[in-house]
Amino acid sequence: MASLKVKELLCLLYSALLFISGVLLIGFSVVLLYKVIHHFKFIPSSAIGPFIIYFLLGFVHLFLTWLGVKGPSREHDVHIILFMVITVILLVAECAVGVWSIILWDEVDIESLHLMQKSFNDLLNNDYDKKDWARMESELKCCGFDGAKAYEKKNVLPLSCCNSGLQNSTCTEIYQMGCQKPLASYAKILLIDAAIMGFSCCVFQALGVFLFYTFFRTLKVERSARVQRRLAMQRRVSQENGSANPTPSSPPPPASA
């Protein structure tokens, strides 16, 4: 009985951590999704996928919290089994998203290169995407597609390529590095974070399956022991009632005439 109570407390503690993990997963996915959208003009749209899925899986964490509390506390087999089944599915899904993030990490620099090159050509010829380039150059401290020389065709260097002094708006330094490498590093870091999130969740879900499975096995053993104790008590009560009320002996037969 004591072992069952300990495992029940562990399951309830895990459920509380599961709720926290759901909130964190939703929060981190929103933050990382914002970082992708912030430079979405130069990052392939496929990079959004993992963060959207993590956002949805965060709500599954919150739903599992309800099952994780109700199942062990009320000893409901259906809720415990449903919890383990959904947790296994969640484990596989989060592991798959982690692998997907690694695949995207390996491809994002090439796809970003094509998007940046096309966008920069449009910028030079038609002044398209000027705000997007200005924001990226200021934040990543870079200039043009492959350096300040890329603006020679326009004969005008944008202010976003200048590192302005703190005291005034004069240009104290021109960023010489092009934006292709800084942006590729920026996108790769986001996808590495996505992969770490996925594999960390996998380990966490595996722990949950283990805890609830051991609790379920212990619960089955404890229920069997309860049945045996109940039967033993019923037999003891029956024996005590039988000894307290002995059967009266039958009278002797009458003597013959």
From TrEMBL:
Region feature (Disordered): 235-257
Please report any disulfide bonds recorded for this protein chain, giving both cysteine positions. C142-C179, C143-C161
* Keywords of this entry: Disulfide bond, Membrane, Transmembrane, Transmembrane helix
Gene3D superfamilies, sorted: Tetraspanin (1.10.1450.10)
Locate the transmembrane regions by residue number: 12-34, 46-69, 81-105, 190-216
Superkingdom of this entry's organism? Eukaryota
Q: Which SUPFAM superfamilies match?
A: Tetraspanin (SSF48652)
Q: Which coarse location class describes where this protein primarily resides?
A: membrane
UniProt cross-references to InterPro entries, sorted A to Z: Tetraspanin/Peripherin (IPR018499), Tetraspanin_animals (IPR000301), Tetraspanin_EC2_sf (IPR008952)
**Pfam family name, one:** Tetraspanin
Q: Does the keyword rRNA processing apply?
A: no
Provide ranges: composition bias, Pro residues: 248-257
Q: Please report the record's description of how this protein sits within the membrane.
A: Multi-pass membrane protein
**Where in or outside the cell is it found?**
Membrane
What is one cellular component GO term in this UniProt entry? membrane
**Which family, according to the similarity comment?**
Belongs to the tetraspanin (TM4SF) family.
The family database entries (PANTHER family) matched by this protein are listed as: TETRASPANIN
Q: In its UniProt entry, what is this protein called?
A: Tetraspanin
